[in-house]
Write a structure and sequence with these properties.
The chain is an alpha/beta fold. Helix content is 46%, strand content 16%. β5 and β6 form a beta hairpin. The protein binds adenosine monophosphate (AMP).
Length: 220
């Protein structure tokens, strides 16, 4: 088991559509450490109409990366809050080698988990996504439908298809991922930090993904 004072500073990697957000949420409940999603933070900034949100909106909607300056500012503020004292699960950052270097300057990362799934699985998962307008919970028309059509199980908010969940933005997001983010796998592998988890299981069997990931996180 890990020592009492070791922080669980975990980076979660994986293609858009692999289910990272869902796994992060489950792991966050299991370990009692926050799930920090730069995508969620940026979307919140957009919905609030803050200066960061105004800068980020067109990049997010088209599936391109938001400029580092904007994301780094939000992230470093978030990582300095007290709830990160025991660690965190970082979802959506870093997305480039440069961001990985910037993260190294902000904090020490203890583990990097890469969730892997086949292309066909990724395309299917990306296709039918729905998001709650109020709390950001994620559903899938076929794989993880809400109890009541169009309504969030958690908060009763309206479910909608995000702009970046539409086909042209999906193509752009996958392209950005391959060009900018995939090199991170090699980067962390070379540093002996990478743990690969097979994510080719349907949602009913999500424990087959969460269990090995949780084991990897808690091992010294
Ligand atoms: P996600 O929910 O992680 O798929 O992020 C949604 C969108 O937010 C991405 O397509 C980017 O436009 C933006 N975004 C999230 N994280 C980052 C990041 N680390 N760097 C740049 N843009 C980001």
């Amino acid at each position: 088991m890990r020592g009492m004072f070791t922080k669980m500073n975990v980076v979660l990697l994986g293609s858009p559509g692999v289910g990272k957000g869902t796994y992060a949420k489950l792991l966050s409940e299991r370990f009692g450490i926050p799930h920090i999603s730069t995508g969620d933070m940026l979307r919140e900034a957009v919905s609030k109409g803050s200066p960061a949100g105004k800068k980020a909106k067109e990049y997010i909607d088209s599936g391109k990366l938001v400029p580092d300056e904007t994301v780094n500012h939000l992230l470093s503020e978030r990582l300095s809050r007290p709830d990160c004292a025991q660690g965190f699960l970082l979802d959506g950052y870093p997305r480039t080698i440069k961001q990985a270097q910037m993260l190294e300057n902000m904090t020490r990362i203890s583990k990097v988990i890469n969730f892997e799934a086949e292309d066909a699985t990724i395309m299917e998962r990306l296709g039918g996504r729905l998001t709650c307008r109020e709390c950001g919970a994620i559903y899938h028309i076929k794989n993880m439908p809400p109890k009541k059509q169009g309504i969030c199980d958690i908060c009763g908010g309206e479910l909608y298809q995000r702009e970046d969940q539409k086909p042209s933005a999906i193509t752009q997001r996958l392209d950005t991922y391959r060009k900018e983010t995939q090199p991170l796998i090699e980067h962390y592998k070379n540093r002996g930090m990478l743990i690969v988890i097979d994510a080719n299981f349907p949602y009913e069997e999500v424990e087959k993904i969460i269990k090995p990931a949780a084991r990897a996180i808690s091992e010294d």
